[in-house]
Design goal:
8-stranded antiparallel barrel; alpha+beta; about 270 residues; 8 strands; single chain; 9 helices
Length: about 270
């Protein structure tokens, strides 16, 4: 889904993956206004990161993503309706020192705000198993051009069924000029459709914009983009703490019942000569 770094027109299939305390129903249908991302080294499903995943009591919620490509890491995504709601959660954490200690082990924490003006349709989490995580750093002083650039993608894909995205801009963290796009896939077979060069979606996009605007879109890449990185993650239900509404929407995924394990026959004992 890398805008123009790999081909002239890329589809953007983006949706919300963050749990939103104080707005439990909204988290299923609309993006939170504030997104907090905590990054940990990729775990082995045990040790300190496992403790962090299960630390705390509601309303501390997050969706856990484990990397399949790029740097080996684990991301906790938590969503809030406002910074005031984030402050309220912090106060809950102060009353639970063990939760604070575990979450403080994050190697990086960033806070983002939702850009509705740069987004096109949003979808729920039901059935989602993989996340494509695109981090784009804009060149300083090029915010207006970048806004125009992303809106051109929205215009091109608004008539293509199934295409949607939510956009976030970093306000606290490592880079004020960082923009985040989070794509959702129910299966990796959907990646074939997204990356299919010359497919129906690409043709519809090209037709909607026209050759002149496509040339402008390509030219704007070098003007607005300083750097870009796209990686693939899988959702880890074991290390996530979704809200009750998310669990109820898909209980077998978020709270799987351990399957009964059939007893294996004992290995045959070699007979003595």
């Amino acid at each position: 889904m890398t805008f123009l770094s790999r081909r002239a027109a890329m589809p953007l299939l983006l949706c919300l993956v963050a749990a939103a305390p104080s707005a439990v129903r909204a988290q299923l249908v609309s993006p939170p206004q504030v997104l907090v991302i905590r990054e940990f080294p990729k775990p082995d499903l045990g040790g300190p990161t496992k403790e962090a995943a299960k630390a705390g009591k509601p309303p501390i919620h997050h969706i856990a993503l484990t990397s399949l490509t790029g740097p080996q890491r684990l991301l906790f995504l938590s969503g809030y309706p406002s910074f005031a709601a984030l402050e309220a959660e912090d106060k809950v954490g102060e009353k639970n020192p063990s939760a604070g200690t575990a979450l403080d082990r994050a190697v990086d924490v960033s806070q983002w705000v939702y850009r509705a003006d740069l987004s096109l349709n949003t979808r729920d989490l039901v059935g989602v198993r993989y996340i494509e995580y695109q981090l784009l750093i804009a060149k300083p002083g090029r915010s207006e051009e970048l806004d125009e650039w992303v809106k051109m993608f929205a215009e091109g894909y608004k008539g293509v069924p199934g295409y949607n995205w939510a956009t976030y801009q970093q306000v606290f963290g490592t880079n004020y000029y960082a923009y985040l796009f989070i794509a959702r896939y129910k299966s990796l077979s959907e990646v074939d459709s997204v990356w299919g060069v010359g497919g129906a979606a690409t043709e519809a996009f090209n037709s909607a914009l026209g050759e002149d605007r496509l040339k402008k879109l390509r030219a704007m890449w070098s003007v607005v983009v300083d750097s870009e990185m796209t990686n693939l993650f899988s959702i880890s239900p074991e290390m996530s703490r979704p809200t009750d509404d998310v669990i109820k929407a898909e209980p077998t995924f978020w709270s799987p019942t351990p399957a009964s394990v059939a007893k294996k026959p004992a290995p045959a004992t070699a007979s003595k000569p």
